[in-house]
Amino acid sequence: MTRSTSIARFALLAFATLLCLAPVTARSQIMDRTVQVGDQSVRYLAAGTGDKAIVLLHGWPQSADEFRKIIPDLAEGYHVYAPDLSGIGDSTAPNQRWNKAALAGDVKAFADHMGLKDPLVVGHDIGGMVAYAYARLYPDALSGVAILDVPIPGLDPADAIAATAHAWHYDFHNQVGLAETLVEGRQAAYFGYFINKVSANPKAISREDIAVYAKAYETPESLRAGFELYRAFDEDAAFFKAQVSRFTVPMLVVGAEFSTGGALPIMEDSFARQGATDITTVIVEGSGHWLAEEKPAATVQAIEDFAAVVFND
């Protein structure tokens, strides 16, 4: 063996050793699956491994796909699950119940089926209402709850927001049959208009993204399910107002700068008056309503900081 060959082999061995010692930086692949939970079929996204689970609940007019930008980062430290809510996308709704307590029961059945022990439940928009209902109904079955940019029906400042021009869609969605007739076949146009109106950075959500959401509501049944989420608000308000017992589950309440960020002090006080004792609030600077897509890094940071506390990392 010549001296030059020996040096080359040594260099190759040293390089291979460095590769073995280098940290793994590959991002977790998102799996798109469907599982049968009793009578219900639940479509969900999942990534990551381990016993510490984060469950992400989407809002309207979106599906679990709204979290695709943040799932890989969260999955570096946690097992992440994002189901389509009942009746939306490829999740069925055999019970045809749209109040948030009932939907929380569906999510709980999914979590139990997947063997999740005390997950952190995170919800955005309508999903935030479902997450809070989950925490109130099953306080001993989760590590914490995070509510992203949404007022809770029955609690301040939900009524004040509902009375503003920004909530025009509440009344429209309440028009049973008419809303379906006018939007069916025009989901992408309607969702695109709505998303752009409450976004600080419309370019963060592409036409392709909107097409994915439109597909999640493309059938008459799923389109109606989306509107029924709003038609249940009176029932939801009665439920949430009744939740006045001492509530020690750690809460994270996140507001976007250009959405509910300014209302966080009112929301915190309202939760406290309902018995909540452990509340953290965070404003995501520069974001409109669509936190996970407009400001994914800041959204991940807020969730991970909270997760580190509730999971005692």
What does this structure look like?
The chain is of the alpha/beta class and 313 residues long. It has one domain: 3-Layer(aba) Sandwich (Rossmann fold), CATH 3.40.50. It has 14 helices and 8 strands. The protein has an 8-stranded mixed sheet, with helices on both faces. Helix 3 packs across helix 4 and helix 8 crosses helix 9. The chain is globular, with a radius of gyration of 22 Å. The chain starts with a helix and ends with a helix. The N terminus is likely disordered.
Primary descriptors:
disordered N terminus, 313 residues, Rossmann fold, 44% helix, alpha/beta
Mean pLDDT: 93
Q: Strands across the major sheet, in which order?
A: 1-2-4-3-5-6-7-8
Task: Tell me the distance between the termini.
Answer: 53 Å
Tell me the Rg in angstroms.
Answer: 22 Å
Q: If classified by CATH, what would the architecture be?
A: 3-Layer(aba) Sandwich
Question: What's the short story on this structure?
Answer:
With 313 residues, the chain is of the alpha/beta class.
Strand and helix map with partners:
Layout: H1 3-21, E1 31-37, E2 40-47, E3 53-57, H2 71-74, E4 79-83, H3 100-113, E5 120-124, H4 126-137, E6 144-148, H5 158-162, H6 168-173, H7 178-183, H8 187-197, H9 207-216, H10 220-231, H11 233-241, E7 251-256, H12 264-273, E8 279-284, H13 291-294, H14 296-310
Parallel strand pairs: 3-4, 3-5, 5-6, 6-7, 7-8
Antiparallel strand pairs: 1-2, 2-4
